[in-house]
Structure formats: structure tokens, C-alpha cells
Design goal:
The chain has about 240 residues and is α/β, with parallel strands linked by helices. It has helices at about 45-50, 70, 95-100, 100-105, 115-125, 140-155, 170-185, 200-205, 220-225, 225-235; strands at about 5-15, 20-30, 35, 60-65, 75-80, 160-165, 190-195, 205-210, 215-220.
């Protein structure tokens, strides 16, 4: 039996006296394209960061493919929000993509020619190989997001955790991103995405977790993404109910 790609139990996180997540339990099966959906401040990004031990937990555990993070880390690729990155740092697009090879090389080894070739291939896959030698400060928001994805692809991970990848990107980039995610799913990979656009959830995702500091509902999109569950998740903040 295949273990879930991500299994979270009794997860509670707080920022000082502000409770960000409360007693969260969830499972996301391997080989699916899943969304974390909820209002601003619901703890979606916090959930990813806490699972990856990037921020402390009050209580709870996160297990990846049946293994603790320490054993599973090499098989996990994390794509943070673009706002979390210093885009003035003096590196090229190819330099950033190559960072995806550091997990297997270690920080002290220089990337080989084969690593560079693979990085270029990943840039081609997301449609920006022609920007390989461009400084990252010169990129648009959509191009920056494609660089992030290329870096993640080079890791050759089994699980991709993406924090708001569609925010602030153009339609062409959004199309490229979702097609790449679908391609990863077809290869047996698992992709978990923090997502805001309710209109595209049924089209894009197999599974959905509705979150507002605690899990409201989770499971196949067709059965979970309902007007009733959305109203419970968003309350008066929900302006549009069109699942």
C-alpha cells in the first residue's frame, strides 16, 4: 500500500498569541494535484512551512510518504512565494535553476556540465531557456515564477509544495504552470498548491483541502468543493460561490 504523500496530525501553530493553525489533521494521497484553499490568514502558507519545519510548531507531526522530513527531504521541492525572495541578488536565471541540483551535490561541489544541461532543459520545459543568462532582477513576475518551477524540476522530487504560484502572473505563465503540474502528476509526482482563485479549482485540481485555521473539509474536488463547504470556510468573506 502506498503511503500518503503528506500526512499531518494534530498540527497547531501560533505566532505569539495569534493562533495560525489549530489541531490540523489531513492526508493528501500520492500522485494527485491538490489545492489548499481558504481566506487570507487561514494558515495555508503556514501549513506548508510548518510541515517543512521552516517555522516552529506548538504541537503536531508531518510525515512524507510514510517518512519523517529528515529522511524524505531530498524528495521534496518547495516553491515559496515570490515576495519571500530578494530579486536584486546578483545571479542569473541559470544560476537559480542550478540551485535545484545542490541537494544531491552538496553546497561545496560545483555543478557539472550535465547539471547545467539539465538546468537548461528544465528552463526549456517552462519556456524561458532564452533567458538563461538574464539577471533575475530583469524578469517579470511570471518569468520569476517559471524560474522557481525550473529550479524545483531540477531536484527531481516526488512531492512539490507550491505557495501561491499563480499570484501576479500573466495568463500564458499560468497556463504553462498548470500544464507542467499536470505533466508532473502524469509522471506519478504529487503537487500541493496554495491557491486563491475559486473559479479554477474544479478545472485544475483532483483534491482540495478547505482550510480556515482548521480543516473544514478535504478530499476529491468533486465532492468537497461545494457551496456549503465554501460558505463554512469563507463565511461572510465569500463573494462568489460557483463551484
Amino acid at each position: 500500500m502506498i503511503s500518503p504523500a503528506l500526512s499531518v496530525s494534530d498540527l497547531t501553530v501560533s505566532y505569539g498569541e495569534n493562533l495560525a493553525l489549530w489541531d490540523v489533521d489531513l492526508q493528501i494521497e500520492a500522485g494527485c494535484l491538490a489545492a489548499l484553499v481558504g481566506p487570507n490568514g487561514a494558515g495555508k502558507s503556514t501549513l506548508l512551512k510548518a510541515a517543512l519545519e521552516l517555522i516552529p510548531r506548538v504541537t503536531g507531526t508531518a510525515v512524507f510518504f510514510g517518512q519523517p522530513l529528515a529522511r524524505a527531504r531530498q524528495g521534496i521541492a518547495y516553491v515559496p512565494q515570490r515576495s519571500a525572495v530578494d530579486w536584486e541578488f546578483p545571479v542569473t536565471v541559470l544560476d537559480v535553476a542550478l540551485m535545484g541540483s545542490y541537494g544531491r551535490l552538496g553546497w561545496l561541489k560545483r555543478p557539472r556540465r550535465t547539471d547545467r544541461d539539465q538546468a537548461v532543459s528544465c528552463l526549456q520545459r517552462v519556456g524561458i531557456a532564452d533567458l538563461a543568462h538574464r539577471h533575475i532582477s530583469e524578469l517579470s513576475g511570471g518569468q520569476q515564477q517559471r524560474v522557481f518551477l525550473a529550479r524545483a524540476l531540477l531536484q527531481g522530487a516526488d512531492l512539490y509544495l507550491m505557495d501561491e504560484p499563480f499570484t501576479g502572473v500573466d495568463a500564458a505563465t499560468e497556463s504553462t504552470l498548470i500544464e507542467t503540474m499536470r505533466s508532473l502528476r502524469s509522471e506519478g509526482k504529487t503537487v500541493i498548491v496554495v491557491h486563491h482563485d475559486l473559479q479554477t479549482v474544479p478545472e485544475y485540481f483532483d483534491e482540495v483541502v478547505l482550510l480556515n485555521r482548521e480543516v473544514v473539509a478535504q478530499g476529491p474536488t468533486g465532492s468537497v468543493f461545494t457551496a456549503e463547504n465554501l460558505q463554512t470556510t469563507y463565511g461572510g468573506k465569500l463573494a462568489l460561490l460557483t463551484p
